[in-house]
Amino acid sequence: MKKYLNCIGFNHRGTETQRRKKLFLSLCLCASVVSIIFLSSCTSTPPTSAAGSVPLQGLAKFDYFVLALSWSPDYCAGLSRGSGGSDPQECALGHKLGFVLHGLWPQDDPGYPSDCSAEPLPAGVKAQFPGLYPNDALYDHEWTKHGTCTGLSPAVYLALAGQLRQAVTIPDNFRAPANSFRTTVDQLKQDFTAANPGFTSPDFEVTCSGSGRYLTELYVCFSRDARPQACGLSLHKTALKTCQAADFVVRNTP
Questions:
Q1: Is 18 helix (H, G, I), strand (E, B) or coil?
Q2: Least C-beta-crowded within 10 Å: which of 27, 102, 235, 242?
């Protein structure tokens, strides 16, 4: 005890009242130091913006961004079942595409804005981002429906979509699997959080097709300044309704 009191500046000289006063002041000082250390250790560093050098000035009014990644084998399986279309760019045999960029969407909670202007996507801008989407039709569709509601220029919108896509690491088991496999919503989220430090489970939402039997899309949510954030409650509820089975099939990449 004597050694401890000495280390905080207490000594046995002086009157009893002086010693008590010194002890009280020393203990107060120690408590303050401990509090500062504790608070410093509990303060987490905010996640880094995934926008990189992409400028985000002039954003329109919406709550957050959703990066929508489609599971290409499920989309292509729908076409092969006779859904009324074909997509040789994305679905040709041997392409072996897994998660592909569906779009970058401004999102509200609830709802989302869409088709906010008639501004076209210039062909020259599109040419600056080859391979961003799995087929050419998505460039114009996504810009018209979602990009025009962000407040960003076409070039900045596409650059941000590419930057956020690159910020998400696809786990190894979802990289062109040779065979279909089963998983659950919770397990898929665990796989993605493990592969993406800085993201948490609520930052991801999963949607299913075929009455919950097949993986169809993954939503990754970002704040307005492009930092990972929890998806909104309305999006969570909507996604949950599509994946109500105990597990679902992740189709293989043909």
A1: helix
A2: 27
Phi, psi of 16, rounded to the nearest 5 degrees: -60, -40
CB 191, CB 174: distance < 8 Å? yes
Q: Is 155 exposed, middle or buried (0-12, 13-18, 19+ CB in 10 A)?
A: middle
- The closest of 188, 191, 200, 207 to 230, measured between CA atoms, is 200
User: Under CATH, which number does the domain 64-250 receive?
Assistant: 3.90.730.10
Q: Cα 23 to chain center, whole Å? A: 52
What angle do the packed helices 137-145 and 154-167 form, to 10 degrees? 110
Active site residues: 102, 142, 146
206, β-bridge pairs: 218
User: What is the mean pLDDT of each successive set of 10 residues along the chain, which is 254 residues long?
Assistant: 39 47 44 36 54 84 98 90 71 89 97 97 97 96 98 97 97 95 98 98 98 98 97 97 96 88
CA distance from start to end of the chain: 73
R_g of the chain computed on alpha carbons:
26
pLDDT at 21: 47
What is the b/e burial string over 45-71, where b = at least 16 CB atoms within 10 angstroms of the residue's CB?
eebebbbeebebeeeeebbbbbbbbbb
Closest listed residue to residue 141, CA positions, set 156, 126, 160, 128: 126
CB atoms within 10 A of CB 197: 8
Give pTM, 2 decimals: 0.80
